TrEMBL record:
InterPro entries: Acyl-CoA_dehydrogenase-like, Acyl-CoA_DH_C, Acyl-CoA_Oxase/DH_mid-dom_sf, AcylCo_DH-like_C, AcylCoA_DH/ox_N, AcylCoA_DH/ox_N_sf, AcylCoA_DH/oxidase_NM_dom_sf. The keyword Oxidoreductase applies. Residues 31-97 form the Acyl-CoA dehydrogenase/oxidase N-terminal domain. The lineage of its organism: Bacteria, Pseudomonadati, Pseudomonadota, Alphaproteobacteria, Hyphomicrobiales. GO terms for molecular function: acyl-CoA dehydrogenase activity; flavin adenine dinucleotide binding; monooxygenase activity. Keywords: Monooxygenase, Oxidoreductase. This is Flavin-dependent monooxygenase. Residues 246-379 form the Acyl-CoA dehydrogenase C-terminal domain. It comes from the Bacteria. Gene3D superfamilies: Acyl-CoA dehydrogenase/oxidase, N-terminal domain, Butyryl-CoA Dehydrogenase, subunit A, domain 2, Butyryl-CoA Dehydrogenase, subunit A, domain 3. SUPFAM superfamilies: Acyl-CoA dehydrogenase C-terminal domain-like, Acyl-CoA dehydrogenase NM domain-like. Pfam families: Acyl-CoA_dh_2, Acyl-CoA_dh_N.
Length: 399
């Protein structure tokens, strides 16, 4: 009996949380696909789906093991994001928020970190990285007020954070490189007011509303200083900015994979478009375009995986906190967004008139990807810094 018990315990210890998460996602897939339109109409993810995502572990995937989290390797986390985005864009997006939020709050002081995770590692956190608020220095802390946009997942969040410009006597306090000093205020969700503003073209199920905070005295302990350095040990927590473009790249690739899945499913129905000589599956025009789409998708997937692996190697070796790596990440996010939008556009065009109806998942994929590509991490202006980096490296190599 003792030997059996020992063997059973040993087998549990050897379980792979990453593989368990992917298996859990496959079990949840039919529910997500069946209810995608329902969640889009509600403009939020259904509470019971949120609870099932918690059970899978998406809210704890980047939480340290010391606090009950899974602390997945970064590339493994990207695979989880891609798998969920492949099922539904909004689900993938809130998974990105869950992962990125865990990385942000890992920079908080121990007392705040303990409060955030006092009920366990599955705490749902969200926030806005736009400096929509001000934090005026006063005795006892800061007087905070503001209005923040694009707070994805705020309807199911338990904690919300907002970037604030720190002021004194009404004037911004200079920070690094002469820019205004910025701090993140983190408070329980009950302290924020949600404005019903998320009426958008795509990613409708993300509940990316505005949140507001009326003038509130907040102690110093409830602020996160991202410039102060890591507060948690381990490769994941050395820096935050370097990771953010990469999580965006993972979700766009996942959504593009989903668009191709929808196109293939349509072809499998035997559909024959008006005036077409043969069904889609037998059309050489369809074969040709599908071949181009498949090549684009394979290239996007390979680039996303290579960039995640490269950043992870830097993290493991302790060299992640490098501005050049922010630019490298921006390069991948921008190119991936452009490529994945092109994939969705091509899938939509190949599907013909059937794709224009709300009942077609392809039109939702198209809208979701176009909205995701509007994100700051994927803007074409990023190529300016990318080009400068290429020139700088070329000069250094020549020298």
């Amino acid at each position: 009996m003792r030997l059996q018990e020992k063997t059973k315990t040993h087998s549990v210890q050897l379980r792979d949380p990453h593989k368990d998460m992917l298996a859990g996602i496959q079990k949840l897939a039919p529910s997500i696909k069946a209810r995608a339109a329902e969640m889009e109409a509600a403009r939020c993810v259904s509470p019971d789906i949120v609870e099932r995502l918690k059970a899978i572990g998406i809210f704890r995937m980047f939480v340290p093991r010391s606090h009950g989290g899974l602390e997945l390797d970064f590339p493994a986390g990207m695979e989880v994001i891609r798998a969920l985005a492949r099922l539904d864009g909004s689900i993938g997006w809130i998974t990105v928020v869950a992962g990125a939020s865990s990385l942000f709050v890992a920079a908080s002081r121990p007392e705040l970190y303990k409060r955030i995770y006092q009920d366990g590692p599955d705490t749902a956190i969200c926030g806005s990285s736009q400096p929509g608020g001000t934090a005026e220095r006063v005795d006892g802390g800061y007087r905070v007020k503001g209005r923040w946009p694009f707070v994805s997942g705020c309807t199911h969040a338990e904690w919300i954070g907002g970037f604030c410009i720190v002021t004194e006597n009404g004037k911004p306090i200079p920070g690094a490189q002469g820019k205004p000093q910025v701090r993140v205020v983190a408070l329980p969700a009950r302290d924020w007011e949600i404005e019903d503003t998320w009426h958008a073209a795509g990613l409708k199920g993300t509940a990316s509303h505005h949140v507001t905070l009326k003038e509130t005295l907040v102690p110093e302990a409830d602020f996160i200083d991202l410039e102060a350095g890591p507060q948690q040990p381990g490769p994941l927590y050395q820096a935050v900015r370097q990771w953010l473009p990469l999580v965006h790249g993972a979700v766009t690739v996942g959504m593009a994979e989903g668009a191709v899945d929808e196109l293939l499913a349509l072809a499998d129905t035997g559909r024959q478009q008006l005036y077409a000589a043969v069904p889609m599956r037998e059309s050489e025009t369809f074969h040709y375009e599908l071949g181009r789409i498949s090549a684009d998708l394979a290239a996007a997937r390979a680039f996303q995986e290579a960039q995640a692996a490269s950043h992870w190697r830097h993290a493991v070796s302790g060299t992640l906190n490098d501005e050049d790596l922010v630019i490298e990440g921006a390069r991948s996010a921008t190119w991936l967004a452009t490529t994945c939008v092109r994939i969705a556009d091509a899938c939509f065009a190949l599907a013909g008139s059937s794709a224009v109806y709300d009942t077609s998942p392809l039109q939702r994929r198209l809208r979701d990807l176009h909205v995701a590509a509007q994100h700051a991490h994927a803007q074409q202006r990023q190529y300016v810094d990318i080009g400068k980096l290429a020139l700088r490296r070329s000069t250094a190599h020549a020298g």
